[in-house]
């Protein structure tokens, strides 16, 4: 899995997003990213099977930017460990509803706080 995760990080470094599924792999990749200093800048969650409906699950999406109205999200993004905890929470909440999910992930090493 490590080789696959390295290829995914290369895609992220090129400014692309990666698809990750199932949720168990998302949880593993999330921890791998955090161990390498990456934080999730944007996450889109799509239910691909099961549950009451399929399709984009907007209530689990995450977007971090430095603009007004996103202060908390930006602070989460600036700390890879906090970002990992946030994504773990999102994946677990989605999974608790049942079904299978696909995650579209954009991540990068956050800028230095200081």
UniProtKB/TrEMBL annotation:
List the keywords (alphabetical): Plasmid
Descriptive protein name: Uncharacterized protein
- Species of origin: Rhodobacter capsulatus (strain ATCC BAA-309 / NBRC 16581 / SB1003)
């Amino acid at each position: 899995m490590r080789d696959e995760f390295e290829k995914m990080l290369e895609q992220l470094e090129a400014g692309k997003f990666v698809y990750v599924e199932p949720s168990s792999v998302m949880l593993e990749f999330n921890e791998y990213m955090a161990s390498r200093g990456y934080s999730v800048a944007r996450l889109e969650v799509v239910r691909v099977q099961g549950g009451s409906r399929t399709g984009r699950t907007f209530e689990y999406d995450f977007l971090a930017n430095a603009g007004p109205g996103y202060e908390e999200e930006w602070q989460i993004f600036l700390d890879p460990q906090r970002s990992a905890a946030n994504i773990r929470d999102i994946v677990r909440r989605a999974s608790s509803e049942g079904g299978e999910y696909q995650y579209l992930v954009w991540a990068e090493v956050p800028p230095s706080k200081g």
